[in-house]
Amino acid sequence: MIGDLVNGREKSSILLVKDFADASGRPVLACFLVSLAQRFDEVHVICFDSRSRDLLHVVNPNISPRVKFHDGSRDLLNWNKRSQLHVDTDLSKFVQSQIGCHGNKKIAVVIDSISPLILHRPVPYTCQTINRLSTNVEQVICLLHSDLHDKHSMSMIEHVSSSVLTMEIPDSGDSIFCCNTLHKKPSGKIIKIREHFNLTNTFEIVEIKEVKSTVIPNKSDQTEQVNPAANLTFNLSLSEKEIKDRSNVKLPYMYNEQRQEETLLKVCR
């Protein structure tokens, strides 16, 4: 699944890459950037992290003119009142001003990362910003540092995202990277998958392996089937003779032929 998302075979208007300190998502973000630069006319990288500058060196020089970097990390809170890009900037209007009248150009936006927006602005504001931005461009890809935020904030961001890639520590030593992918197809179908993979020096994803989740039953949870009639002081079971006698008992509401004829005669009178 991650290979299809990176290469564009699976469409996703808003893609979120979640990482934490022990499992960085920036290499995966670099894979998306390299792929976008090959498939789109322009890719605008909005940098709110000082380490975002590492992405400058991952794109092939032949296609690097398609990638436009916008640094907002130098004056994140706009203390100098001179920065065009900071946490209070309307990203939709900012990107629109940078691309101008793009006509039929395919435009993508990469945000590294949206954590400063969530930390300094209300989470609904960030959700609205990302959603509004996605209406003006083909695709928006965001990096989120999950260990900086609470579950409620992350759930709101995940709700507006069409794909969520959660970086994890690999279960085996054969792979360097692992991620849990939740992808919402345009048809409404939701796909959840866990994959191990590696990256090449040119930031291509290779050796993708799906990891099947196995559930090991806990012995303490296994309970033996209990017979409710095992420890009773009286016997609930019937012998064959008792069963036969019970079947011969005529209950008041049961009609035999004689009683049925008597009832019909009374009605006719």
TrEMBL record:
<protein>
    <recommendedName>
        <fullName>Elongator complex protein 5</fullName>
    </recommendedName>
</protein>
<dbReference type="Pfam" id="PF10483">
    <property type="entry name" value="Elong_Iki1"/>
</dbReference>
<keyword id="KW-0963">Cytoplasm</keyword>
<keyword id="KW-0539">Nucleus</keyword>
<keyword id="KW-0819">tRNA processing</keyword>
<dbReference type="InterPro" id="IPR027417">
    <property type="entry name" value="P-loop_NTPase"/>
</dbReference>
<comment type="pathway">
    <text>tRNA modification; 5-methoxycarbonylmethyl-2-thiouridine-tRNA biosynthesis.</text>
</comment>
<dbReference type="InterPro" id="IPR019519">
    <property type="entry name" value="Elp5"/>
</dbReference>
<comment type="similarity">
    <text>Belongs to the ELP5 family.</text>
</comment>
